[in-house]
Amino acid sequence: MATIDLTACRMRDALRARNLSAVEAAGACLEAIDRLNPGIRAFLSTDAQGARRRAEEIDKRLDAGEDVGLLAGVPVAVKDNMCTDDGQPTSCASRILENWRAPYNAHVVERLLEEGAVIVGKTNMDEFAMGSSTENSGFEATRNPWDLDRVPGGSSGGSAAAVSARMVPMALGSDTGGSIRQPAALCGVVGLKPTYGRVSRYGLVAFASSLDQIGPFGRTVEDAALLLQATAGHDPRDSTSVPEADQPVPDYLAALDEPVAPLRIGVPKEFFGEGLDAEVEKIVRDALAVYAGLGAELVNIDLPHSTDYAIATYYIVATSEASSNLARYDGVHYGHRSSDHADMIDMYMRSREEGFGDEVKRRIMLGTYALSAGYYDAYYKKALQVRRLIRQDFDRAFEKVDCIMGPTSPTAAFRQGEKTDDPLTMYLSDVYTASCNLAAIAGVSIPCGFTEAGLPVGLQILSGVFTEERLLRIARMYERETDWPSRAPPVCGEAP
Amino acid sequence: MALSKDEVLKVGALSRIRLTDDEVERFAGQLSSILDYVDKLNELDTSGVEPLAHALPLHNVLREDEPRPGLDPQKAVGGAPESAGGFFRVPRVIDDGSSA
Q1: Which residue of A99, A316, A325, B12 lies most exposed, with the fewest beta carbons within 10 A?
Q2: How many domains is chain A partitioned into structurally?
Q3: Long-range CB contacts for residues A420-423, cutoff 8 Å, separation at least 24
């Protein structure tokens, strides 16, 4: 088996057994990136020299018998909205931060380094994580490895595509309304959004602070569990990060293969309504049948506020928070300043005009409008009230069931350019994912089959706050019965 | 709810984003259709429902007020478009009075 075909966990085993060196692992990924990235464009930057240097150091430590950590020598990619002080830009795929270099590492980046990972590059995304196709990148659109004419999903489309095309065995993304799970589904990989507070956002460029969460991509459930293990835990620099005393980080890998029994699965009728592609529905229902075959009980439930109303709520809450968070890009502190301006205010206005793309402008303006005098009660307050109804729907559901399942996305990967002229249609790509962030619960998307056209379909599994250990075991039950992760996109070809 | 071009310009100014005539036209249509969609929320009776700004309980997080190293000032201004002596440089904000 070629090195890049190894999952992160098997790569880690080979590295520990010294059957594989960290230099070879990094080299294999860098070679795959050279070969595949020009077509897929998953990476905004790579650090070949830094990765090789670091891999050499890790090999020396492994040879000396040192414990180098959970990820010793495993190559990882990081979404470009996480700060790295390794000389690579942290641009959020925005012209306004083009070539900006962070003066410190994000908490998750520190954790990756402490656990021995080798960071090979930064991945493309929708600008400031605003989008569902990675077409809103200020630099270039990422392509879906299964069909280069189609989108990889977004906003973490670069990370999803990089893992799917086996350029790296795993990657970090961020999820504000579905930005890990939706691209995971469209690219045929596993993507997990942990509970709000499980992973520190220190050094994650803020989009919507009450919703943003960092999480792992891997080809298998086990790999997602490994990367979550490495990044979860308390960090005093993010005041929403939950203390270990309240929520200790469990061992996500120890009992991964133990099925959850009895298992009651909630199937909300709202996740199978109008707008769901018939082929996607059939594939997802087949996945539910696999669970039923394993003895799980399928329970019909109602989540009356968790689709259309959740999208409406999300686009008020997220844009309101974004309008405040993105005020910091003012041509003074970071990145781009317009060279042509009459006075201070004009400098702000021109710098932001030149630096932000259309979708970012739309969302800042929508949020500013929702928070402005006279509209606050009608929009922002109303959205927060519906947010409570959404949370209550989930609280009631989790009294009856252990988890909730449905499609991650209403369709498989759509064509490049198909939705770029109509923002609202694009927003509805997140119709099944946004409620999870509004309620702060955990959710994962796992591959569950392919359409006739050969496009991957994702099964979304949602579970209550801080139940990732059980959620991963539930996901693993299905994965053991099927073998989707062994399929590679045709573009990967035969590795030399 | 339809947004007029004047309203779009006003929101643009509040957002500190300069807009071209083309953008005003386009954003007026797009923002109006998004707001129409959001109006769905008015189908729901939320009287007496407490707003939920944060889905998990938030607490004040306090620590001892002990000195510790912060970000080096040169590093802190290192990503700025213009800086001098560890400070951010901005265009003149206060009129020097000569034109008064």
Answers
A1: A99
A2: 2
A3: A420/A133, A420/A135, A423/A359, A423/A362, A423/B30, A423/B34
Are A149 and A48 in a shared domain? yes
Q: What is the CATH number of domain B5-43?
A: 1.10.20
ipTM for the assembly = 0.93
**pLDDT at residue number A494:** 57
Residue B44 and residue A389: Cβ atoms within 8 Å?
yes
Residue B15 · residue B53 · CB < 8 Å: no
Q: Is A22 in the same domain as A99? A: yes
Q: What would the pLDDT profile of A86-100 be if each residue is shown by its tens digit?
A: 999 999 999 999 989
Looking at every residue in chain A, the average pLDDT score rounds to 97
Which sequence spans correspond to the domains of chain B?
A: 5-43
Q: How far is CA A410 from CA A259, A284, A430, B29, in A?
A: 28, 11, 8, 26
Distance CA A404, CA B27 (A): 37
- Supply the pLDDT for residue A54: 98
State how far the alpha carbon of A89 is from the alpha carbons of A18, A47, A52, A394, B46, in Å: 33, 10, 19, 39, 45
Residue in A with minimal Cα distance to B75: A103
Residues of the domain holding A354: 308-384
Tell me, yes or no, whether A174 lies in a domain.
yes
Q: What is the pLDDT of residues A385-435, one digit of tens each?
A: 999 999 999 999 999 999 999 999 999 999 999 999 899 999 999 999 999
Please indicate, yes or no, whether residues A47 and A115 belong to a single structural domain of this protein.
yes
Contact assignment for B34 to A386 by CB distance below 8 Å: no
Cβ of A1 under 8 Å from any chain B Cβ? no
